[in-house]
Fold these 4 entries.
Entry 1:
Amino acid sequence: MNAGEESEYFLKSYMLRQRDLGKKDTIFGRINELSDDGNLESLIWDAMAEDDLANFRIKNLITILRISKSGVKSKADISINGVRYSIKEIGASPPAIINHTPRPGFENVCKKLNVSIQELDDIVCEYWDLRTKVTIKEDTCVSDTNCPFTQHKKYLRPIIEYFVFTGTGTGDSKNLADKILEIDYKNLPGEMKIVRKEQYFNDVWPSLVFSLRSKGMPPNYPNTNNSNSISRWTRFFDGKNKGSLHVRVKTN
């Protein structure tokens, strides 16, 4: 279990106690609604979990309270008082913003947003040109001098926001996120911060790292569906076919 997963399980347990004991000492005040894409709404706080909560024994909390983790296709991890939040643990490694996605996934998203994919095609083409010349490495950060993505903030914004709050390259999530909830789960209730959708993009933009990788590529490429689309971003590099765009937040 990684730190991000621990954080989600702990927050759900913590907020369950807040709701059922009527506590008001978080930024949310009294909890009138608490749910996720699983069974959180119907759970009841059990006093037997108090010591495990105080000592961060996550596995025990899961067993006693029957807390579940949100599904991989959910963008929201928890709903509190009617607002759906994606949990970001500030004590963990920075999260991936877009997991390894070949070009057809971005085609789907661009169509949904009514945005031309041509500009992204041009950026990826420039990326490979700079990689071939060894001007940039596989990972290129927006803050780097030669990063080909840096000058395209306005264009990339709705695409990145879609992946953070709405869905993936295969379609919309059934459980969208309205806002980001940044927490340090070992320092609650103090370390909790709500970040609005428009604010989150501006916060992470300077630290975004883009790369084209082999992970996420169809295993039988080029003998696969959408091969023509996939090939437009794919280059055989370092002995591998690399054509999946990955975006993450830079590690401090």
Note: The chain has two domains: 3-89, 96-175+204-249.
Entry 2:
Amino acid sequence: MYQRDGVWTFSIHGVLVYVRELPRNNITVFHHICSPVRELVEPVCRGRGYWRSEHKNWLVFEQFKGIVLEDLGRLALG
């Protein structure tokens, strides 16, 4: 995991997953199209925010930010 200025980057199965903090402390989670990574990331985000199809990313609510970052960190470790 790499973190700088409200942006976290995780490598999951060699695919970069980007998490960006928004002004209201919600976060967005984005990765390029990769089905195996989607199968791991989607359950982490589902129920903790919603899919924004116009931006092709997840918006995760502030109260779940810590757990989502922890879960993504665990996935990045393998």
Note: The first helix runs from residue 35 to 45.
Entry 3:
Amino acid sequence: MVTANAHAENLNEKYIHEFLVAVDEMSVNKNVAGIGEFLSDDVVITMHISVLGNLQTHTANKEQYLAMLAQGWEIAENYKYSRKGVEIKYLDEGKKALITATVYESMIVEGTAIRSTSTEAVIVERQNGKTLIIKMTGETSM
């Protein structure tokens, strides 16, 4: 008996590294369409954002998240992005991976300097030869 997952491609260090390098490059360059290439069509995104102590929770699908990125990056000047502290845990016998990291962003919006630190957790899997985010959660403080 053959199951649907029998032919699923396992993740490995090379796929994860290529994925992280590409996503970081797309982020640095504010390439919304490029980021979209790494999101599965049914991705679930949850963001917990604390601004001056006020916590807000946002849930988005792929289209909503990309629209939010486009709006934010459009008004951001002097945008800087970096990812540190990457940890990888393979799940489901290597078919998925949980990637956690801290993302640092800074920008100027309408003359005001903004800095944020986000703890992000993404679950990725290989779909049709590509490493895609199927779930993302983030805790951001500004």
Note: The chain is about 25% helix and 55% strand.
Entry 4:
Amino acid sequence: MKRWLALLGALAVLAAGCTTRTADASQPCQVGAAPAAGEVTYVEGARLMAVGPDGQGRRCLADHVDAAPHWGPRGDAGLAGPTRLVSAGQASPTGFTPADHVSLSPAGTSLLAVTPDGRLMKRPAAGGPVEDIGVINSYDAAIYHPSGQAIVVAGYGDGETASSGYGIYLADTTGALQGTLAAAETSHHIDSLAWTDDGHLIFAGQHTDRWDLHSLDLAAGTITTLASTTAPDQPITDVVTSPFAGGGIAWQEGACAPGRPPLTKMRLAGQPLDLPPALATATPVGWLGDATLVLLQRPDPCGAGIGKAARASSAGDVYTVRGTTVTKVATGAVDATVRVVHPTPPPLPTNIPSDAPI
């Protein structure tokens, strides 16, 4: 604790790595290729900015955005919210609505969406007709496997091609079910799907008395519980995983309450680690390749309302944390993500056990 306090007391010195605001309104904006070391991307005003892990090299990537993109594995395209796709060519509409939960295929060619009424929709990233590829009763979440060879979905089966109960299912890229990965015993809602570097599926599951953060080993068909909250109204959210060797998982626990924002937790190389106290409520936004966690610290972690004025007032600072080194890399950020080129993803296992209990 003393080491963290001393470190944070010297944060102003470390924050000197944060560049001055030389990227003025006249600077041309261009996405370009992702740097080898990766970069932090964030929204300042209505501009998408990027800065290196050391706070240097600040530049503009795109204009007229209100969310930092969740970048695809190649780092050349990302979803800035459900409605906009940002790429080297342009920022274009996805064709989906703000209420949809949208993800990008690993190759960057397809968009997958779970709608508020539980349908599973797919459309080409370059534009084209939307196709309903759902074959079970309803969907809560969906994500492509890192290999791009399959889709993993959570929802209720139809009683014919899948269990009639709630669970996690494996489908091919057309939506056709291939099997049941996990069958719910006490879990009744699943979301926050993400992948680790070794191909384990990380997900949050709501039970009658708590939320759990689980890891599903597809090849072994086993589930490990990584963390739990103490009540069903204390969710696990903002899950981010590292695609690099050695792994890294960070998430938030708890619901917003007066004087009690959600707390951020992290694991690295399979072990839980503590964040410095001053960043205990900062939102995790991603991992760089050297086991560096990136976080957005807002002055009001639970938000200041709705609208542009509220977003501006909740603009915060972006930090990187690597070991015991904390660096402020950006200020005035209303949203932030990480842009890195992922290593070669793990293959889809050829033999996948079924019906692991949740």
Note: The helical segments are 2-9, 11-14, 308-313.
